[in-house]
Each structure stands twice: as C-alpha cells, then as structure tokens.
Amino acid sequence: MPRGRTTALTVRLTPAERQTLRAWQRSTRLPASLARRGRILLLLADGRTITDIAATVGLSRRHTYKWIQRFVQEGLEGLTDRPTTGRPRIELRRDDLRNQHEMDVG
C-alpha cells in the first residue's frame, strides 16, 4: 500500500525523456546525484507518492519536490547542478605548493 497522500503533481514523460532517464540509471559515468534525480521522475511518472519516492531515493520530501519542480519548469536541463555562489576555488600549482612548504619549514 502506498504511503503518503496523492499529489497534484503529475509528470508525463515523453518516450525520449524516459529513455534518457533510464540510461542515466544504468550509467557508471554520470554523477550519482543526477541518476537519483532521474529516478525520482521515473517513479513519479509511474504513479508513486512523493513520500514513497523520497524514502526510496533517500532524500527529504522537500528536495524531492525541488527536483520535480525544476524538471517541470526546465526539463532535463533543470536536473543538473547550478553553479554555487561564494568564494571561487583557488587552483594552486605544484611549484606554488612546494614554495609554500619551503617557507613554512625554513
């Protein structure tokens, strides 16, 4: 018996979208987060409740809704991670690290 309330959110996947999401499930080269988001949509399209989907994929209901909403608004492209804000990464070269180590030790 399904857990949770039925939701007004329904997703109709095109055959191409369904094929892409299934390919994501089988891929060993994609990030696991992307495969998980694809699984959310496949389960929703199969009629599962949000509560059940969240428990199955290991996310909160809030984050499950987030990825469904992003798919509804942006399609498959909406399932990718957006760039984060904050301090940019600093790439140090090996020479810079060696010089830093010499200064720390010396």
Strand content: under 5%
For the largest beta-sheet, the strand count, sense and barrel status come to:
none
Q: Report the order of strands and helices.
A: HHHHH
The geometry reads as elongated
Helix % is 55-70%
* Total helical segments: 5
The radius of gyration computed from the alpha-carbon positions, rounded to a whole number of angstroms, is 20 Å
Overall number of strands: 0
Structural class: mainly alpha
- Uncertain spans: none
Tell me about this structure.
- This protein is an all-alpha fold and about 110 residues long.
- Helices cover about 55% and strands about 0% of the residues.
- It is built from 5 helices and no strands.
- The longest helix has 14 residues, at about 30-45.
- The protein is elongated.
- The mean pLDDT is about 85.
Secondary structure topology:
Elements: H1 15-26, H2 32-45, H3 50-57, H4 61-74, H5 94-105
Helix pairs in contact: 1-2, 2-3, 3-4
Summarize the structure.
Helix content is 57%, strand content 0%.
Key phrases:
106 residues; elongated; mainly alpha
